[in-house]
User: Fold SET domain-containing protein from Parnassius mnemosyne.
Amino acid sequence: MFLMPTFFNNYLRERGLGHQIYAAMKNDDYSDVVMTALRVLEESGSLPTIEKENKCEKRSDKYREEGNIAFKVGNVYRALEFYNRALMFAPKNSRAIKLAYSNRSAILFKMEQFSKCLIDIETCCKLGCPTDIESKLIKRKNEAIKRSKIENITASLLASYFKDYCKFDVKTNTSIPCASSDIEVIKGNVFKVVAAKDIKVGTPLALEDSFVSCNNEENIPFSCHYCHKMSLNLIPCEGCCLVLFCSEECKEICLKEYHSIECQIMEVIQSIAFSPMAKLMIKGTLKFVQMCGSWKKVISSSHCTGADRIRISSEQEMYDVNNKFSVLNFNDNRLFVHGSMYSASFVCATFIYYLERISGYLPSSFDERKLAKKALGRIMMYFSLYASPTPVNLRVSDTKNRKSFLNPISNHGWYPLIGKLKESCSPNLFVINLNKKMLLIALKPIKMGSELTVSHIGHYLIHQHEHRAKTSISFNLFENVCDCIICTGEWKSQRKQFAFTEKQLNLYKERFLHEDVGVNIMRIPDLFQKICNALTCFSEVPFSEEYVRVFTKFFEFISAYQEVVCSNVVLIENPDGSVRG
Assistant:
């Protein structure tokens, strides 16, 4: 669903200007409605005035002081948020940025995150540690060094056991580099992704980066703006006050792909982009323009999207995330788009208005600039209506209490391969979120020629949505409502109808190892193979209690793998002892 900021809606209702937008919707060219919205907003003087927020030491100090208060009362979660916001607003090389790193290292020390504490201390020292806190920081550093040794040994041990499992180290598909050669694409009236041969349970089939992705608003103070990683050592963008990165590498890549432009109008985006679709539309447009390399290419490409482009596209243009046309190949046969089109037109128009004020971004000549603005409107409206976001739920660690949980607050991304696979309530593929990447592995035995399927809502044994909520999510994503046994929840009450035969029950007892993944870390390779064998044997009875137990062990393994590979950590201890999330 595409949401329109309230200030647009109220103003247009008062002035009765909406009819001009409705008239423009009748035209086939998406740019017409965006350009009409831009003209209406300009002529009526109703474009929002949004000032850029500059780095400010006083603002940074205020956030740091709020962090100190939260720290004193034991709310480390809020303390971390405030210290991170202090970093966002701190000017480069200022005293404020040094103090923010120093104070953050104090809560990391308290929460026994010693290695991460040392990173912040080293960063503070490189920037030039203030003399009045130098002795305190050196003392904290020496103590953290002593206590970090065991922590580092444990982390290295875990990584060594998991690094080779679910590793995507296979022969790749010649047309789709992120995919395995075990899959192939059949093109008839539509594209269909199928198994190129018989595929065993547990086989990795794709490791795909998102074209662009966005964090949920609640995750922003704790997550990398580019790759989603929830890190305790986030670093600020030097140009804006609204994003953080997990590393210099992510910051550099993000600046190159889209953030160098996004950074200059982040306040505008924050004010008008209220939904994942809006945020992805803006990032996706900026990256697409960057990949085109010229406005001439952008203008020509904007005239062929959706079904028109799918008909002439190759497999690579359809599914390869590194091909700019992959995001112009989302199916555009969606119904009921006029409400979203109306809302999106004002968001797109406002964004174009502010893009035009970035020096040197749009062409200098009047005629070419006009064509470029129309191309932007055309592409942005297409993205707004048809480029469906794929939810991303990350595994997050509470290392102090040795617990992890699936973050219920979803981020979103565009995945040209995984996002276009056929939706199924009982899929034959399982999607593993690895921050910005998604790993696809076989969950069932798949016969050669069978179509590959995923659940974009999430597997029903993990995301057990209440029926009404699932119906709402399904309609928003796919504009249809499924009434199968899974979506209605009837499978839970009919488990006994799917009980094992005596032969299957014997196989269950013989082959399935009842062991806990965490306890038997040394036996991970053997355990994972036994789980995959059990899933294979019992794939014909997916609703039985026995199958659910096997799947639960499978998910425990995947969760442990995610925990080690992604290293998403937050400080979740609250004053009342509860766990956030």
User: Anything to note?
Assistant: The two ends are 25 Å apart (CA to CA). The domain at 57-162 is CATH 1.25.40.10 (Serine Threonine Protein Phosphatase 5, Tetratricopeptide repeat).
